[in-house]
Amino acid sequence: MISGGGVMKTKGNFISLISVIFLLLVGMAMGGCGTALTQAAKEGDISALQKLIEEGADINEGAIVGGSMNGSLLSQAAYYCRIEAVKYLIHKGADINNATGWTDYGASGGGLRPLHMAARSGCTEAIKLLLDAGADIDVRANKMFGSALAIAAYHGNIKSVKYLIERGADVDDASQVLKGLADDKMKGRGGKEGLALLQKFEKQKIAIRLSENIPPSIVAKSDVDELPAIKAKLNRNSYAIVIGIESYRQKLPKADYAVADAKAMTEYLTKVMGYPEENVITLINEQATKSDFEKYIEEWLPKNIEPNSSVFIYYSGHGAPNTKTGDAFLVPYDGDPNFIEKTGYPLKKLYDNLSKLQAKGVIVALDSCFSGAGGHSVLAQGSRPLVMNLQTTLSPAKNMIIMAASSGSETSSTYNDKGHGLFTYFMLKGIKGEADMNEDGKIEIEELYQYMKPNVQKIARRLYNNEQTPQLIAPEKQKIFLKD
Predict the structure, then answer these.
(1) Mind listing the domains of the chain with CATH numbers?
(2) I want to staple 126 with a disulfide (CB 3.0 to 4.6 A). Which of 118, 212, 409, 466 is the partner?
(3) What are the backbone angles phi and psi of residue 155, rounded to the nearest 5°?
């Protein structure tokens, strides 16, 4: 209770000053002028957003201009967890790092961004979309509130805290922010609870790191990590390059499970599919620079294969488009989507080099996507995602088959319960035997594709409400076996 003199007299039931300030800030950022565009973002009205933007409305309306405290449209949609609106605004090129207010306090971080607002309300789905689109995971709103992780922890949003930590958020930085709040008696409750939450998950993270030293037989595995008993005979004319890039030199979003995908694929090639170990090159993270791509694809392969050889190329990691030309690129460990022409490895170049090989057959499997709309795909800052048609933009040789994780307008998802990319999981499961429709002990590419496609589509819809349709580009009327 507050008397006429403004003195707080009630004991114990203190309202945290920090919460009051934050709620005022959120109210100011989320309130704005209440324009039709702002209201559409808050309500998730896609039709209204589309109509107004097509009529020329500013997609970044509400950004800080001359000290304005209005929240951007993307911040509105993220805070109110309007997922389809978040997807639409990202797709249309909304600024994912647009500061929404309060830059004058602390001056560090430049204000609340869409990621901070999603963390404040606990909208983990919006957090995922923003990070996949390239949002800075550790940028601070200001000195007092810190990063998205600190904000999520302070407000007790457990699911969001866990997800941000899984995506690599800086726990130490967030903990320091919350320790400062916890030490202040007027701000203590939220700070202490948030700090306890971070410490709980940090202990779990340490336990996971320690478990990496436990023998593999003791660690729980996905069903596809258990190799089948039946193995193909050794084929000394089979060659493979397997690439898995999960973490990048540049501060790019992690390509979740890419390393696990690559390691599992190498296991299947050498222990199930008959590829000699000396004929399989596996490139992981920092071993997969652009020069490594060039060395093994352009030098090692041509010098080793023979005319009757089979070649298998597997890639799990980020793809990126050149938004000016529409060309698709693989992103090496040292790649930068802002300079993709200079630092990426073009798909056209990959196919051109493979088409020159005197090989009996070449199979390319890509657990990646190239639209720049998230998932296993990244985009230059300020650019908009593309719709790419791999069927028409690429012209592989007649002896080449391409399997891609998704169509040009879609993202490639992960299968978290299985610890793999969704595309790779069902590819391995198919090779393990599920795709052997006629039970002849052989896996034909068409059999594998017909098994993978509906399963990938079903899980993507069920888990993420997304469309993901694997693509197969193959010569007509040719039976090509992945395992025989």
Answers:
(1) 35-207 (1.25.40.20), 238-483 (3.40.50.1460)
(2) 118
(3) -95, 10
